Amino acid sequence: MDQEQVNSVKAEVRELKVLIIEDDEFVSMIYEDHLEEADQAIFTVEKFTELEPGINALKKGSFDILLLDLNLPDSDYNNTISTIPSIAFKVPIIVMTSTNDEKLALKTMNFGAQDYLNKDKLDKVLFIRSILYAVERQQLKLDLQREKEKSDELLHNILPDSVIREIREKGSATA
């Protein structure tokens, strides 16, 4: 591979900013090691050991993904789960926990988390793939929202509001 091809490949690699809220420093280091070894993206990591400072950083900064532990020094799992709906619109969330509880996994996903991984049995490939898919789904969701806004604007430019309302309510409009 010549230098131009190498530069082209490097240009295609995405840069993703990861927010980790995890109270176990060793576990955070494992996440970082896995992210450093990934060749699908370049990951920049910001870490917090408590929920409140991590959520404040999320509100102030721009992150592509949140890796969220459920049990934190300043928050039990119920409180942590209850914060998911208020932040899931901003960033995709992967819940990282030692608990292998299907009901808890479903609950977190129903609240807006993208995925639920067991950090005690963390597979590096699955971990990276989960992050990349969550980011991709978020991007597709944003793209879809933009396209919907464009189509709504177009409809409002060519049809009266009453006709648009009728189409949305009945699926069609009378001439």
How does this structure look, described?
By secondary structure, the chain is α/β, with parallel strands linked by helices. The chain has 7 helices and 5 strands, in the order H-E-H-E-H-E-H-E-H-E-H-H. Helix 2 links the parallel strand 1 and strand 2. The relative contact order is 0.11. The model has no long low-confidence stretch (mean pLDDT 88).
Q: Main sheet?
A: 5 strands, parallel
Helicity range: 55-70%
The helix/strand order is HEHEHEHEHEHH
Number of strands: 5
Note the topology.
Layout: H1 3-12, E1 14-21, H2 25-37, E2 41-48, H3 51-60, E3 65-69, H4 77-87, E4 93-97, H5 102-110, E5 115-118, H6 124-158, H7 161-170
Parallel strand pairs: 1-2, 1-3, 3-4, 4-5
Keywords summarizing the entry:
single chain, 5 strands, 7 helices, 56% helix, 175 residues, five-stranded parallel β-sheet
Summarize the structure.
With 175 residues, the protein is an alpha/beta fold. The protein contains seven helices and five strands. It has a five-stranded parallel beta sheet, with helices on both faces.
